[in-house]
């Protein structure tokens, strides 16, 4: 049992478990957000979207703005979201599968980390990375397609007429009529992206048995080398005091075969003074 737990400290096993936790937490916070600017709202508006049919932020105010150009929030079909669904809204039934995707990738990470042999672990890391790539890239493509549909199905009975069809980007800015918006990752999106990067690193380390403790020790050693090395930070050796100074010619010790002093040896003849 202890040996099995020790194996989980290997980075190639610990990283998928960490990524799994990040995917689960990503379900609790918005994964995507759109910031809007409009003359009616000088302070701007923000709409947050979750991985399941739920909106946050100023979605009611933005829904009122979208009504003017005939752009509506999607209809998740099988569940009732926390906003009013317009009759002309496009259908997006796959939205309810968001939690399934996140939890499936998370469960795969735990399963792979518990692989009993190196061979199964390496194959599992490869399979999980491929599966996570397909899942997240597929989600990205589907969401962008739904945005395309919504921007090309503007309501004909909208108060503002003559608005050209458009495609809101999943990531980036756009402008429609007198409303501009910028879409980007929410906290959940960053968590999901970070978890995916951990899966990439785990795959790159698939042949290594380095543990978390060993990795931390290596980092500490590198940091110590950067701060130490007898340097005071300016690239010059530190002044270690007089004891460390090189002896000069004046203080140098005797050389073999020479007198301890620099002067030659002298013989002094004492004079005897007679006292008459």
Helix content bin: 40-55%
The side-by-side strand order for the widest beta sheet comes to 3-2-1-5-4
Order of helices and strands: HHEEEHHHEEHH
Radius of gyration: 36 Å
Number of extended strands: 5
Number of helices: 7
Sum up the overall morphology in one term: elongated
Question: Major beta sheet, specifics?
Answer: 5 strands, antiparallel
The unreliable regions are 235-276
- Strand fraction band? 5-15%
| Arithmetic mean of pLDDT | 84
The class by helix and strand makeup works out as: alpha+beta
First CA to last CA: what distance? 110 Å
List keywords for this structure.
276 residues, alpha+beta, 5-stranded antiparallel β-sheet, 7 helices, disordered C terminus
Describe this structure in words.
There is one protein chain. The protein has seven helices and five strands, in the order ααβββαααββαα. By secondary structure, it is of the alpha+beta class. Helix 2 (11-26) runs antiparallel to helix 6.
